[in-house]
Each structure stands twice: as C-alpha cells, then as structure tokens.
C-alpha cells in the first residue's frame, strides 16, 4: 500500500480483508492551530497484529499514534480532519466519550512513568477508576504475568513501582495498560530509554501480547521494527506552504516487503540508511 501527497493524496489501497481491520484511517490530516503536521493518511490496522511506524523525526508518527486514543484532544488547537474509525465507530463523533476510547485503546509512553505508588497499586488503581468489580488480586497477578514481570516482583508487591529498574518499570507500565483490558495498545518508542537486554525482553513481550491485543508501535529503531512488526508504515516529511514541514505516509506493507522489496525509492533509501 502506498500513499504519496504529491501524486495520490486521496488514493485508498488495502491489502486487508474488511473483517480483519480494527482501525481505519481515512484521508486523515492533523493540525496544531494553522500548522499542518500530517497530511492525507490512509491506513488500515489489522486485528491481533503488530504495526510499526517508522520514519525520520518530524514526520508525524507519534502525532498520528496519539490520534488513535484521542490524546491529541488534550493539546490546545489540535484538530483532526478526515475519519478514524475503531471497529466501525467514528472515534471523533461528538457522542463518543474520549475516556472510553482511552480505556479500549491503551498507551505505553517513551519514558516509563509508573505512579508513585506500590507495584500492586500501579495495576489496581486504573482498574478501580474504570469500575472493575472482579478479584483485584487475580487481576494484578494476571496483568503482571501478561507483562512477564510476575516472577520478578511477586514477593515485593508493596514496594514502590519507582524502585524497579528501567526495563521493569516499562513492563510495569505495560501491565498497567493490560489491566484495564483494552483491545489495542499503542507504544510510543517504548524501548528508547532501555538497555539492549531490557529491549529484547520488551520485544519478546510484544510477540506474546499480539495473541490478545492489536499493537501499534512507533520506533526509530529499524531493526526493532523488522523483529517485532507484521506490517510496517514508512512516513516521511516534506516542505509545505510557507516552508513548514508536514508528515505523510509513503508506503505501508508487510514488514518483509518494506525492508526487502519496497515500492518507493524513498523507502529504500531510508531502510538502507541513505537518509534519516
């Protein structure tokens, strides 16, 4: 699948059967005030797969990612044009509650951000806020097992989440996201602050999590994209009116095709290290 703002800004091309699509991005442009950050993106996200967004800094990867759970709503002047649907529901319909969107579409940020609470409360807090009525001990254990952290922390659940190592803190944040039982997990550079061993543990975890969740990951690490993603979207940026740069989707395909036989020359240049 390819989209290029210069040649086919309204083209739609999908390799995915309609029944496999969990999120559709249809001709989406994103603005901060008068500044256009992202232009004319068409992109289908498949269920129970990992999709990686790659591209140079400033090409709109994280901006688009945050639109999928409406975090950009919290930025004054931000607006979305076009349509983003989640399981057929327009995420930006006025009747849609953004809090419910964020429950169904969880987020893991670049820098691990545990609450200044115990490991147990890091998991339980969000579940309580969202009205969880089940066995909290069971939920905490299940979430920590789901993030491959249980065996490391099961004997110190009362200790602060801030006492964990960087890699453990990031997995705690993943457990916290799992605990509210989302269907999609967004990850914005989740390994950028981690050492190589912790990075590999998170990557192994991503492979396991896609059995239950759809995952979209933004990464500058192309090797990471090639290791974890089923599909990869390459974004680039170019100058618009007035010299400001906007991001756009260049090419979207199965990961092996993006890295081994891309259709666009700029994709080939990026994945081969010629720019970016």
Residue ranges: pLDDT <50 for 5 or more in a row?
Answer: 1-13
Please count the helical segments: 10
CA(first)-CA(last) distance: 21 Å
Per CATH, the class reads Alpha Beta
Count of DSSP strands = 10
Shape: globular
Give the number of domains.
1
Helix content: 25-40%
The side-by-side strand order for the widest beta sheet comes to: 6-7-8-3-9-10
Overall mean pLDDT stands at 90
Strand content: 25-35%
From the 3D structure, determine the CATH topology: Rossmann fold
List SSEs in N-to-C order. Answer: EEEHEEHEHHHHEHEHEEHH
Superfamily (CATH H level) name: P-loop containing nucleotide triphosphate hydrolases
Q: Which radius of gyration do the C-alpha atoms yield?
A: 19 Å
The appropriate CATH architecture is 3-Layer(aba) Sandwich
Q: What profile does the largest beta sheet have?
A: 6 strands, mixed
């Amino acid at each position: 699948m390819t989209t290029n703002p210069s040649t086919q800004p309204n083209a739609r091309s999908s390799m995915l059967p309609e029944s496999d699509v969990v999120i559709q991005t249809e001709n989406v442009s994103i603005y901060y005030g008068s500044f256009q950050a992202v232009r004319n993106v068409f992109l289908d996200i498949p269920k129970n797969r990992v999709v990686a967004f790659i591209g140079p800094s400033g090409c709109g990867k994280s901006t688009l990612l945050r639109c999928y759970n409406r975090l950009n709503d919290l930025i004054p002047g931000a607006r979305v044009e076009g349509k983003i649907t989640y399981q057929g529901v327009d995420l930006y319909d006025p009747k849609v509650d953004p809090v419910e969107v964020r429950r169904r579409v969880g987020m893991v940020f670049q820098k691990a951000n545990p609450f200044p609470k115990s490991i147990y409360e890091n998991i339980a807090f969000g579940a309580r806020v969202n009205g969880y009525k089940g066995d909290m001990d069971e939920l905490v254990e299940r979430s920590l097992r789901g993030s491959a952290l249980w065996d490391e922390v099961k004997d110190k659940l009362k200790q602060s989440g801030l006492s964990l190592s960087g890699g453990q803190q990031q997995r705690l944040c993943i457990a916290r996201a799992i605990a509210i039982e989302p269907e999609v997990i967004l990850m914005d550079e989740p390994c950028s602050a981690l050492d190589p061993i912790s990075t590999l543990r998170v990557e192994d975890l991503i492979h396991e999590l896609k059995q239950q969740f759809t995952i979209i990951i933004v990464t500058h690490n192309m090797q990471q994209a090639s290791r974890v993603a089923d599909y990869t979207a390459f974004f680039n940026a170019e100058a618009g009116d007035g010299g400001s740069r906007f991001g756009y989707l260049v090419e979207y395909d199965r990961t092996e095709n993006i890295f081994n036989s891309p259709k666009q020359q700029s994709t080939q240049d990026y994945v081969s290290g010629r720019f970016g």
